[in-house]
Design a protein that fits this description.
By secondary structure, this protein is of the alpha/beta class. It has helices at about 5-15, 55-60, 80-90, 100-105, 110-120, 125-145, 160-170, 215-225, 235-250, 265-275, 285-290, 300-305, 335-354; strands at about 25-30, 35, 50-55, 65, 180-190, 195-200, 205-210, 230, 285, 320. Strands 3-1-2-4 form a four-stranded mixed β-sheet.
Length: about 350
């Protein structure tokens, strides 16, 4: 996590163009919509216009595009011609979903692209392209604009690409979906990174970290199942969960009361009901949950239901670990899972002291 002290340190490194900070941080410039390396030769932005990220993926998901001057993802001294070519291809069509035939047309082996991106940026090419595409959509959510087909206002060359990216992920514009229901999506900044919340006027449907694996598919399934268009906006449940998240991360709240709308099979809902019953500061195993449901052999199905949860933190799937005591998987990342469990243990300890 980047602290206030780190931000000041990184900003000074940006002003001084210190090369030893290469790979340590990236800076997103709010006035231009680009993100840069620490040694970018461009005119330096004001501190209040800077946002700092530890990885390129975080900057992409925050809707920043690579700077054309310092080329943070394709600098000749750092990456191969294959990576440079693919980065340029994504920038030409940022809303595109890549398939095998697209690599063939560029005369690039898909496995080579995956390996080289993973080595250089700690993410595969598909993850990079997805982050760029999702960033375009999340920019609209973050800005809170009411009309999803509005023209871009801060530096993106392709307004149509932006609209296409948003529509593919969030659904058709309201004008094209008069018979559909409308869900609202909002960007919520938290201590562990930004989250996206989706709700109607009555209940919360989805709450996930924006860099969660598979989030794009989750949103797509949600809008298909509900036959909804998802547009930027705020509803009462979104206001409620934002307030509760603040209290949760401050250590003053452990039980969420925001109304929820659960979409799943009866078995999945029974698993989620068990998750909510796990007290903060405690954990359960998949096999333990299966036993509590009276189906001790269904631990794999329990694990799948756990992974299908679309309401992070509120339905605490992070409290489920392997029978061996290992953390196991978590869509938001094991670093977050470890932090959450420790945070809740500390909450429990403080409660006992009082």
């Amino acid at each position: 996590m980047i602290t206030a002290e780190h931000k000041m340190e990184y900003y000074q490194a940006l002003l001084d163009k210190k090369s030893e900070y290469e790979g340590i941080f990236y800076v997103g410039v709010k006035t231009t919509g680009v993100f840069c390396r620490p040694t970018c030769p461009a005119r330096k932005p004001k501190y209040e216009n800077c946002e700092f990220y530890e990885t390129a993926q975080e900057a992409l998901l925050a809707s920043f595009r690579p700077c054309q001057r310092c080329r943070p993802l394709s600098h000749p001294n750092h990456v191969s011609p294959v990576v440079q070519k693919l980065v340029e291809a994504v920038e030409a069509y940022p809303e595109k979903r890549w398939k095998e035939q697209d690599f063939d047309e560029l005369d690039i082996d898909a496995s080579t692209a995956r390996r080289q991106f993973k080595k250089r940026f700690s993410m595969t090419f598909v993850e990079y392209a997805r982050a760029r595409r999702m960033g375009l959509a999340f920019k609209q959510i973050r800005s809170g604009q009411a009309v999803i087909d509005a023209q871009l206002s801060s530096g993106y060359e392709s307004g149509s690409g932006f609209r296409d990216a948003f529509s593919r992920i969030m659904g058709a514009a309201p004008a094209k979906s008069a018979d559909s229901r409308i869900l609202r999506a909002a960007w919520i900044d938290t201590r562990l990174g930004p989250m996206v919340a989706i709700a109607d006027e009555e209940a919360l449907y989805l709450l996930e970290f924006v860099d969660r694996r598979g989030l794009e598919r989750e949103v797509e399934r949600l809008r298909q199942r509900t036959k909804s268009a998802i547009i930027p906006g705020v509803t009462a449940p979104i206001r409620s969960i934002e307030q509760e998240l603040t209290a949760y991360f401050d250590g003053s709240l452990s039980v969420f009361t925001t109304p929820l709308h659960l979409i799943g099979s009866p078995f999945q809902k029974s698993v989620w009901a068990q998750l909510v019953q796990i007290p903060p500061g405690e954990t359960r195993s998949y096999s333990g949950l299966a036993g509590a449901l009276g189906k001790p052999k269904a631990f794999r199905a329990v694990a799948q239901a756990n992974g299908a949860n679309q309401l992070a933190l509120v339905i605490p799937c992070h409290r489920v670990i392997n029978a061996s005591g290992d953390l196991g998987g978590y869509g938001g990342g094991l670093t977050r899972k470890s932090w959450l469990l420790q945070h809740e243990k500390q909450f429990l300890s403080n409660q006992r002291q009082h």
